[in-house]
Design a protein that fits this description.
The chain is of the alpha/beta class. It has 9 helices and 8 strands. The protein folds into 2 domains: about 80 residues, no CATH class; about 250 residues, Rossmann fold, CATH 3.40.50. A 6-stranded mixed β-sheet has the order 5-4-3-6-7-8, with helices on both faces. Strands 1-2 form a two-stranded antiparallel ribbon.
């Protein structure tokens, strides 16, 4: 009986000792089966190279380009020239010369380039004079004619997105849509920078005269507050509309183009993130954005207008700091307003949108 009890105890001890070892073995096996697989996808990049006279440069090869991602040089796996026209030349491989484009390794080796020329003509909120210039520029673009592979859509942005013409290769339909977009009335795209600067100057004069200062300050503050709210609303409307158009273009193969006729993008702090999303989505969808400042030549340059507003804000802070009526007022109170004024240059947002998506900005000209 005693021997049987000892044998049972020894068996239990061996079993207990084996259980952690078995659990560890199963755990090690599970850990070995957890394999992290990292995939890679190749990206199509378009490059249009022009000389200082604006002429397209075609005698280029793969060695003339370097592609970097996060500072790491990437290999160009495919390189071809894509030209406009029915007999477009499309040559594969690194031994051919042409405009640069990287493509998938499993791409169109040995077959023609699948080309669909999709162009979105987008009319942002424009004044009457700017709409005339935008219409002339759009019609000048259509002067070259459309081929069977060219699809053009016409859109308008106000407080929502308007589709004047879905994508079509019918030139007459596109021209009619451009005429409608160029004559359509929209909510006035008013810049209140000058109004705010005038109100600030008026406040300074009244402060020196010590007359009706409180009323002048309330007027100035109301203009500044409404300007911020309106710029936020305009910025969200424009970025959301651009995201919708880019999403529709993403379904098409080949190179896509978005031409934005605008008097400037409102990019306050609240709209910075959606604006970055527009650039990111455009690059992923292979959409190049070309911005056109439809305001043309301005009597007061955007830099001068922003400088005037910044100067007025600086004078206001100097007066507040030295005023006995506002002891200890925070020096950082108007910092957000200062940052917003620095973003108010129309060319800043339009230029950034174009340059970071492979396009360019057309500004400071009244020529179509």
């Amino acid at each position: 009986m005693l021997r049987a009890c000892v044998a049972i105890l020894v068996l239990l001890a061996l079993t207990s000792a084996a259980l952690p070892s078995l659990a560890q073995t199963v755990q090690n096996k599970d850990q070995q089966e957890e394999v992290v697989r990292v995939g890679s996808s190749e990206v199509v990049l378009d490059a249009v190279v022009r000389d200082k006279k604006g002429r397209v440069v075609k005698d280029l090869g793969p060695s003339d380009f370097e592609v970097f991602e996060d500072g790491v040089r990437q290999d160009v796996t495919s390189f071809r020239l894509v030209s406009r026209g029915a007999n477009a030349a499309a040559t594969e491989g690194g031994n051919k010369e042409g405009a640069a484009a990287t493509a998938s390794k499993s791409g169109a080796a040995g077959r023609g380039v699948e080309r669909v020329g999709a162009v979105a003509l987008v009319f942002d909120r424009l004044s009457a004079e700017s709409r005339v210039r935008a219409r002339q520029a759009a019609l000048a673009y259509l002067g070259g004619g459309l081929t069977a592979e060219d699809f053009v859509g016409v859109f308008g942005i106000d407080l929502s997105l308007y589709v004047y013409q879905p994508f079509t290769n019918n030139e007459q339909l596109v021209r009619r849509a451009v005429e409608r977009a160029g004559s359509q009335n929209s909510a006035p795209n008013v810049s209140r920078a000058e109004q705010i600067a005038d109100a600030s100057q008026n406040t300074a004069q009244l402060q020196d005269a010590a007359v009706d200062l409180a009323a002048a300050e309330m007027t100035q503050r109301s203009l500044e507050t409404f300007d911020v709210l309106e710029r936020n609303q305009q910025g969200y409307a424009t970025t959301n509309a651009l995201l919708a158009i880019i999403s529709s273009l993403a379904r098409l193969p080949g190179r896509k183009t978005l031409v934005l006729f605008s008097e400037g993008l409102a990019i306050p702090t609240a709209v910075e993130s959606p604006f970055r999303t527009v650039i990111s989505n455009a690059n992923r969808a292979n959409v190049s954005i070309y911005s056109v400042d439809a305001a043309g030549l301005r009597a007061l340059s955007p830099d001068q207008a922003a400088g005037r507003s910044l100067s007025a804000l600086g004078q206001q802070r100097i007066r507040q700091a030295g005023s006995p009526n506002e002891p200890g007022s925070p020096m950082m109170r108007d910092m957000e307003r200062n940052e917003d004024l620095m973003r108010s240059n129309p060319d800043a947002g339009l230029g950034q949108l174009a340059e970071q998506t492979g396009g360019f900005l057309v500004s400071n000209t009244n020529e179509p």
